[in-house]
Design goal:
Layout lengths: L1 E2 L9 H8 L3 E5 L5 E13 L28 E6 L3 E7 L7 E8 L2 E2 L1 H7 L17 E5 L9 E5 L8 H5 L1 E6 L2
Antiparallel strand pairs: 1-8, 2-3, 2-8, 3-6, 3-10, 4-5, 5-6, 6-7, 9-10
Length: 175
Amino acid sequence: MKIVDRIFFEVPAEQLSMRLLGKFLCRKFKDGSVLRRRITETEAYGGFDTPDTACHAYKGKTARNAPLFGSGGTLYVFLCYGIFNLLNIISGSENDPQGVLIRGVEGSAGPGRVGRLFEICRSLSGKDIIDNDEIWLEDDGFCPEASQIICSKRIGIEYASDIDKKRLARFCLEI
């Protein structure tokens, strides 16, 4: 397995969403054990080129969403419904807020379940996923074919504009 490098993240969010499918999300726990699961579902958000009302950075930079303005590979973790810590990986370049929500991994569907499984905490927000000994990505060379990727509308963004609700920015891997 090889660790994913910085260049991997320096692309628009929708492209990164598809690139992440099939990669391994890895988490080292306090007891030294490591969990590795293949990413099976992602959603893309943001970018100044196509303003996205579903993105947390749409109305500007705040203390909460500041990691979204980081460089590709920065982690953005936010609390959803006061219960779930959701993991996002920033894409593109610094100060162009866009990122990818990790919605599912093998054996665990839904971003809240992924957060629980990987013990995602908000202290990870703002950290870099590259050269990180707590959480990282690995690539075993698997590259899904276009026929294995299903593209659909994002989930849980009722507050967004009609255009953004209809945007096909959710990607699922069928293996």
